Amino acid sequence: MYNHVLFPTDGSEAADAALDHAVDHARQYDAVLHVLFVAQDDFGPSGLVHGDHDDIEQSDMVGEHDAGQSSGMTNEEPERLGAIAEHGETVVADVADTVGDDVTVETAVRSGNAYERILDYADEEGADLVVMGTHGRTGVDRYLLGSVTEKVVRTADVPVLTVRAKES
Fold first, then answer.
1. 8, 160 in Cβ contact below 8 A?
2. What is the DSSP-derived secondary structure letter of residue 57?
3. pLDDT tens digits, residue range 65-81?
4. Dist. CA 8–CA 6, nearest whole Å
5. What is the CA radius of gyration of the chain?
């Protein structure tokens, strides 16, 4: 039923909550598990980056705006985007190591708008299923922050399995 399972991750707990589901589906259907990290190139209020340059952090693929984010008025974006992409390489490698050898894993890091790159990658690789984590935000939080997962669910041509992160 599934030949290619796409697991977009930002390294967050929400994404980690979905990993077991992605691996189980890939294992059950002997499918390739594609692990994708998107280094978002929008550093505005809905961008991914917060913190200082030495402490790149992502959160649920949408992030939160704070004073540490770039205003878009400096030349820091390429440097920060490179640092995020480097972090992404580590994230996808860690996922591949976690999965082990019983599932074929392909990893990729892309840059751009997160939900658009996820959909592009799904089309390029012929993904039959997308498995994503979500924080399950509602109301004003969801409205203000947006949701990459929600946009993928609404616009994907293939089924999207969403897994809500456990509350701590």
1. no
2. B
3. 333 333 344 455 667 77
4. 6
5. 15
Q: What is the dihedral of CA 95, 100, 104, 106, to 10 degrees?
A: 30
Provide CB contacts within 8 A for 35, sequence distance 6+: 7, 9, 92, 95, 96, 99, 105, 106, 107, 108
Give every CB contact of residue 110 below 8 A, 6+ residues apart in sequence: 36, 37, 38, 39, 117, 120, 121
Give the whole-angstrom CA distance, residue 124 versus residue 21.
22
Domain boundaries, given as residue ranges, for the chain: 4-164
Taking the C-alpha atoms of residue 72 and residue 46, their distance in angstroms, rounded to an integer, is 13
**How far is Cα 93 from Cα 105, in angstroms, rounded to an integer?**
10
Class of domain 4-164: alpha beta
Q: What is the mean pLDDT of residues 96-107?
A: 95
- Residue 81: what pLDDT? 73
Phi and psi at 92, nearest 5°, equal -70, -35
Beta carbons within 10 angstroms of residue 109's beta carbon? 20
Interatomic CA distance for residues 91 and 61, integer angstroms: 13
Find out whether 37 and 11 touch, Cβ atoms under 8 Å: yes
Two tokens, residue 89: 């390489």
Of 2, 37, 63, the closest CA to residue 117 belongs to 37
